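Late entry, evening session. Most of the bench is empty. Finally got around to the prediction I had been postponing all week. Sequence below, unchanged from the version circulated by S.P.
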Amino acid sequence: MVRTLEHLFGAESPASGRELLCDRTFDLSSVASARAALAEHARARGLTDIDLTKFVLAVHEVMINSVRHGGGGGRLLLWCTADALHCHVDDDGPGIPPSLRNLRRRRPPVGRIGAGHGLWLAGQVCPGVRITDRAGGGAEVCLTYPLPGRGGPDQGAAAPGNCSPPGSGEASASGRR
């Protein structure tokens, strides 16, 4: 990936209200280690039990999507704000077809490869998922998961629009990847 932190975070430092926890590229051979690092960071920030499992599962499904459909790998950025964990995954693939971007749709048909099972599952277990296309090609998925006791799902902390990378200036869900 040729994207820089400055591209994602702009001139704003990740330290200004956003703690950058992880920045790594991945491919099929390193998905497991990236997932383990993600789980450790999430656990250290207070996610446990089912919340930890849901967040790690959602990110894992998006990473596997990048490996299978996005050019063989991607980049994972994980940061923390006062009330949530945010994970940004991008790749150099062709993007995600509009028909697969509705994460609240009915379950995709069983047995159809490329039917969007991973994205659908991520949308079922993670309260904040935003899918966008990158200018110049590739896809981006940003997942937000509320930290316990600091703005749970009932308080809107994980609204997809709150998943913009620091400094990006975006504040609304786009419905694109």
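Two things to note before I forget:
The radius of gyration is 15 Å.
Helices lie at 5-9, 31-44, 49-69, 117-125.
Will write this up properly tomorrow.
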